[in-house]
Design brief:
alpha/beta, Hypothetical Protein Ychn, Chain: A, 5-stranded parallel sheet
Length: 151
């Protein structure tokens, strides 16, 4: 009987040790990386992308995790980042102030083609960085482990 109690006590101590060493990993939270793709000049799609940003952030905040989100636009979706033309300009400005680890990337290839067609450089919102290629940026983010979302 003493042997069974000793073995039982040893198992309890061992399990407690496992639980204690795994608790810090749980309480520290996880960091999630999300790439959101916009390639349509459609206010509904743009708003859905920004709703996804807000909802993703809200969920991960509620479970104690962090999130890094990058919204990448190219092709007709670049209109999302053009001042005075974007139907979501105010939302982008607000979200960029409210949400830490949120960034916006505009395709340099699309911008260059649009600028050539219009005869002047297409302006981009100050909250947005221009990357050489939107498609390549999405590939790079996925290679870095980002989850891909297309609204």
């Amino acid at each position: 009987m003493k042997t069974i109690r000793s073995i039982g006590a040893a198992l309890i101590v061992a399990l407690a040790g496992v639980l204690v060493t795994s608790l810090p990993a749980r309480t520290e939270g996880k960091t999630h990386h999300i790439a959101i793709h916009v390639n349509q000049n459609d206010p509904q799609v743009m708003n859905m992308a920004l709703n996804n940003v807000r909802n993703i952030r809200k969920y991960y905040d509620s479970v104690g995790d962090e999130v890094v989100i990058e919204v990448v636009a190219y092709g007709p979706g670049l209109n999302m980042f053009i001042p005075d033309k974007s139907p979501v300009e105010d939302r982008i400005k607000t979200l960029s102030l409210e949400i830490e680890n949120l960034s916006f990337s505009a395709c340099g290839n699309t911008r260059r083609k649009m600028s050539r067609k219009l005869g002047h450089e297409v302006p981009i919102m100050e909250e947005v960085q221009v990357v050489p290629s939107g498609v390549v940026r999405l590939v790079e983010l996925q290679e870095q482990g980002y989850a891909y979302v297309r609204p």
